[in-house]
Amino acid sequence: MAGIDEVLKFVETSEKLLQLERNEEISQTSVLQESSNKKELERQGVCLLKLRIVSSCTGLYGRTVFTFERFQPGADDNSLPSHKLSPGDIVGLYPAGALG
Q1: How far apart are CA 68 and CA 52, in angstroms?
Q2: Residue 48: how many other CB atoms lie within 10 Å
Q3: What does the alpha-carbon distance between residue 4 and residue 79 come to, in Å, rounded to a whole number?
Q4: Nearest-angstrom CA–CA distance, 38 and 32
Q5: pLDDT confidence bin for 7, thresholds 50/70/90
Q6: What is the pTM of this model?
Q7: What is each CA distance from 59 to 65, 79, 87, in whole angstroms?
Q8: Residue 93 pLDDT more than 90?
Q9: For the residues of 19-64, what is the DSSP string, one character each?
Q10: Cα(31)–Cα(24) distance, rounded to whole angstroms?
Q11: What is the pLDDT of residues 28-44, one digit of tens each?
């Protein structure tokens, strides 16, 4: 049964390391948000400005899923700029001008 004990120890260690990594990522993001303006955050790919909701639907486990596009009146291309956001990321949504 040493095999199961080793697996359990590996899982426990992995959970602790993943939690440490998550906490560090949250800390780094907070520092970045406090020390940079919105345009700089967008340039770094951690913020998307001037978006509008194109559609919404209910996803797995009752989660609301939104589809966004760039809001640029008169522009032919409303695709999103390069960014580091990925499915499942927790994001903040604010009305235009709400964050100064």
Answers
A1: 6
A2: 16
A3: 49
A4: 10
A5: very high
A6: 0.60
A7: 6, 23, 12
A8: no
A9: HHHHHHHHHHHHHHHHHS-HHHHHHTTS---SEEEEEEEE-GGG-E
A10: 11
A11: 888 888 898 888 888 88
Question: pLDDT digits over 30-88, tens only?
Answer: 888 889 888 888 888 888 988 989 999 999 999 888 888 988 877 788 888 888 888 87
Q: How far apart are CA 41 and CA 39, in angstroms?
A: 5
**Strand pairing partners for 69?**
52
Q: Would you mind telling me the total number of residues written for the chain in this entry? A: 100
Query: Considering Cα of 93, then 82, then 68, then 97, what sign does the dihedral take?
Result: positive
Alpha-carbon distance of 79 to 70, in angstroms, equals 6
Q: Which residue shows structure tokens 């906490």? A: 23
pLDDT at 96: 77
Q: How many CA atoms lie within 13 A of 24 on its CB side?
A: 6
Q: Locate 36 and state its tokens.
A: 């940079």
Structure tokens at 4: 């199961």
